[in-house]
Design a protein that fits this description.
Number of strands of chain A: 2
Largest interface: A-B, 45 and 32 residues
Radius of gyration of chain B: 60 Å
Largest sheet of chain B: none
Helix content of chain B: over 70%
Oligomer: heterodimer
Number of helices of chain B: 2
Largest sheet of chain A: 2 strands, antiparallel
Strand order of the largest sheet of chain A: 1-2
Number of helices of chain A: 10
Order of helices and strands of chain B: HH
Number of domains of chain A: 1
Structural class of chain B: mainly alpha
Distance between the termini of chain B: 163 Å
Chain lengths: ~280, ~160
């Protein structure tokens, strides 16, 4: 609801700044103009660090108030989240690894919190940033591919680490032998092996790619739809504004649900990928 | 929409957050929750053990009560038996004593009777002698006839 109200007031002032595309620009610090990699999105970094710091401060605050008896308030809520994550990890994991549950917990809470920023009015933070002289500001870091990719790649590296640590020969053998090479006669194996390897590499690379693009795509599309609602409906007089208000409200609720769902999906896939890496070798 | 240095920065942020969350939020909470569930499990186990101990104690009490009851019945039976024995004994003793008293009385009576009989016998002989002396008025040889008279007297008292 807040979002739509804000949009009502701010959409007009923002119309002339390059339309939707203008709102999809990052606050960028370019280190090397010729190299597109050598730049940093200050908005993404700032918001994610603020959220992370907020979580850390909350953790410190809660740690000193933990009671062993019946929990109440924040502790009760966090215990239900911890219990839920713990149950998910226990259900999926063949062995106990003390790193997995905290990792899944962080993934879930961090993504859920960041996605929730999206319910703030579309132009609010951008306009606040304008006040401070920042031309572009994207308030939701999950809309920036860098964050989902960073998390997905971290998880992927962890998966590879466990694959090599727990069953190195099995993993290498699977890369060249499964599913095709083991099916063909021995004289054909040398020819099939490279094809098999390429296929397996694509399969493995697809994991972090799908993980990051799923989250990024959902959140990015959600943001674009918010902007579309603002631009298409809010300019259409009283009827358009009323319609924009209700459509914006509905989309805010739906998007809130999507944000939570995406956090859950990212978390559960992280657990599943790591669980596959921990599965004992079948003979 | 391309990757850049933010990607590296985000990896650092994410991994740092994982480390911090593990150390300051998830770790303490998971420990606390585990401690609590252990405590609850211990409490439930203690409650079960208490119930079991209670049931055992009750069974023991019932057993001891039964034993005590049986013992009491036994003691009462023994006491009754002893009382019966004692009463029988005293009756027997009383009877024996009575019999003894009767016997000694009978003996005494017998002895008295004998003594009286002998006295009577001597007196009767004297009286007879006196009577014979006076009636016959004849000279009688006391030593010769005394024997005769005693014989008669004895014959006369023979059946007494």
């Amino acid at each position: 609801m807040k979002k739509s109200l804000r949009e009502t007031g701010l959409a007009e002032t923002s119309h002339g700044e390059g339309g939707i595309a203008g709102h999809l620009q990052y606050w960028t610090l370019k280190i090397d103009e010729s190299n597109p990699f050598m730049q940093i999105h200050l908005d993404t970094m700032l918001v994610s660090i603020v959220v992370a710091a907020g979580l850390f401060i909350f953790a410190l605050w809660l740690k000193n108030r933990l009671v062993e008896g019946a929990p109440t308030g924040a502790q009760n809520f966090m215990e239900s989240v911890v219990g839920f994550i713990d149950q998910t990890v226990t259900d999926n994991f063949p062995v106990h690894n003390p790193l997995i549950a905290p990792l899944a917990f962080t993934v879930f809470v961090f993504i859920a919190l960041i996605n929730t920023i999206d319910i703030l009015p579309a132009f609010l933070i951008g306009n606040v940033a304008h006040v401070f002289g920042v031309e572009h500001f994207r308030p939701v870091p999950t809309n920036d591919l860098n964050l989902p990719a960073a998390m997905a790649v971290s998880v992927f590296v962890l998966v590879l680490y466990y694959e090599f640590k727990l069953k190195p020969m099995h993993f290498l053998r699977e890369l060249v032998m499964e599913p095709f090479t083991s099916l063909v006669p021995i004289y054909l194996k040398p020819f099939v092996m490279p094809i098999n390897l390429i296929l397996k590499v694509v399969e493995e690379i697809a994991k972090p790619l799908s993980l990051s693009f799923r989250l990024f795509g959902n959140m990015f599309a959600g943001e674009v739809i918010f902007l579309l609602i603002a631009f298409l409906l809010l300019g259409g007089g009283a009827v358009g504004m009323a319609a924009g208000f209700f459509v914006g409200l509905a989309w805010t609720m739906f998007h809130l649900f999507i944000g939570l769902l995406q956090a859950f999906i990212f978390m559960i896939l992280t657990v599943v990928y790591l669980s596959i890496a921990h599965q004992p070798v079948e003979h | 929409m391309s990757l850049d240095l933010t990607f590296i920065g985000q990896i650092v942020v994410f991994l740092t957050l994982v480390f911090l969350m593990r150390k300051y939020l998830y770790g303490p909470m998971a420990e606390l929750m585990e401690a609590r569930s252990n405590k609850i499990a211990e409490g439930l186990a203690a409650a079960d053990a208490g119930k079991e101990a209670f049931a055992k104690a009750q069974a023991e009490i019932a057993e001891q009560l039964n034993e005590a009851r049986a013992k009491a019945v036994e003691i009462i039976a023994a006491a009754e038996k002893r009382a019966a024995e004692l009463s029988e004994e005293s009756v027997t003793r009383a009877r024996n004593e009575a019999e003894a008293i009767i016997d000694s009385a009978r003996e005494e009576v017998g002895a008295e009777l004998n003594r009286a009989r002998q006295t009577l016998r001597a007196e009767v002989a004297d009286i007879a002698m006196l009577a014979a002396e006076q009636v016959v008025e004849a000279e009688l040889d006391a030593s010769r006839h005394t024997k005769l008279i005693e014989g008669i007297v004895n014959k006369g008292f023979g059946n007494a």
